[in-house]
Write a structure and sequence with these properties.
This protein is of the alpha+beta class. It has 4 helices and 12 strands, in the order αββββαββαβββββαβ. A hairpin with an 8-residue loop joins strand 5 (74-79) and strand 6 (88-93).
């Protein structure tokens, strides 16, 4: 005959009660804008995301190193650009996935480069697969001298809509920071 001890049943019920009580708290905290944490980078920070985000790991910001960016879903495409002499294969996470990872459904993202070039990227330009935050060209990481280590890239050859001045203007190379806002 199988018997359950009162202690184990009591412990199980207490655990269940704690879970049930904590779930509404977590939901309410998230809805009220409370921020929770992401993993910490273990290497040099390549990208800082701040503003209207739900998940952070550095004060009110989310910072990413190369490993953290590589852990996100990767997209790769070959395209020519107005800045390169031939078609190149760019790969990295989609901007859409980076925003999703930090818990943002931004109306606008301001991208800032190492030289303080800054431009607003309207949400209408951010699709599930484009642009990407390229961290590799032809399979290799690239340096600041080669417009890296991060570059906002669209598949320019895929569709004429990607070969316009507004798209070229938001194709920020030497990307360091994204600031998310609701307008």
């Amino acid at each position: 005959m199988l018997r359950k001890s009162n202690k184990s049943v009591s412990s199980f019920n207490q655990s269940r009660r704690n879970l049930l009580l904590s779930t509404p708290f977590l939901l309410a905290a998230t809805q009220l804008g409370a921020k929770t944490s992401l993993a910490q980078p273990t290497q040099a920070t390549l990208l800082r995301v701040d503003g209207d985000i739900a998940l952070t790991n550095a004060g009110d910001a989310a910072v990413f190193d190369a490993q953290m960016l590589d852990a996100l879903p990767q997209i790769s495409f070959t395209t020519s650009t107005i800045w390169t002499d031939k078609p190149r294969t760019f790969s990295g996470p989609a901007l859409f996935d980076v925003l999703k990872h930090v818990g943002s459904d931004a109306a606008q993202v301001t991208a800032t480069a190492a030289n303080n070039y800054s431009v607003d990227i309207d949400r209408a330009l951010i699709e599930e697969r484009a642009p990407i935050i390229a961290n590799r060209i032809d399979g290799e990481a690239f340096s600041i001298r080669e417009n890296g280590p991060l570059w906002v890239v669209f598949p320019y050859d895929e569709d004429p809509k990607y070969r316009t001045e507004p798209i070229y203007a938001v194709s920020v190379w030497q990307l360091e920071r994204l600031t998310v806002t609701q307008i």
